[in-house]
Amino acid sequence: MPQDILEPELLPPDHEASSSSNDNSGPRPTRPSLLLAGVLIDAVDFLTIGPTGIRFGFLLGFGASLLALTVLRLPIRTRLQWSLFAGFYCALPLTERLPLASLLSLLMRRR
């Protein structure tokens, strides 16, 4: 008696099926989470006032921004670009009273 041959159905892997869509950047962060990341960077900028900011502002701003944007699961290129900006922002003198990171985080969602 011959046995029936069962053929498995071939499906593409999940990442190939999802890459066919135009938006492969992953889930977009929500507005409150982006605002919290901006507030975090502004807080780091405020804490790096004076000579501390000139010495350690870039490292602290870059690290805090990279951490916050990693938690938000943004693409690596976006993380690095915004982290470089945050590092320079925290290292610049006289930016402690400007909530620039919070304002830019609100505008970032519209992109």
Sum this structure up briefly.
The chain has helices spanning 14-19, 31-47, 51-71, 76-91, 100-108. By secondary structure, the protein is mainly α.
Structure description:
This protein has 111 residues and is mainly α. The termini are far apart. 62% of the residues lie in helices and 0% in strands. The protein has helices at 14-19, 31-47, 51-71, 76-91, 100-108. Helix 2 packs antiparallel against helix 3 and helix 2 (31-47) packs parallel to helix 4 (76-91).
Q: What order do the SSEs take from the amino end to the carboxyl end, as H and E?
A: HHHHH
Overall average residue pLDDT = 81
Cα-to-Cα separation, first versus last residue: 65 Å
The low-confidence parts are 16-24
Number of strands: 0
Structural class: mainly alpha
> Tally the helices: what do you get?
5
SSE map:
Blueprint: H1 14-19, H2 31-47, H3 51-71, H4 76-91, H5 100-108
Sum up the structure in keywords:
111 residues, mainly alpha, 5 helices, elongated
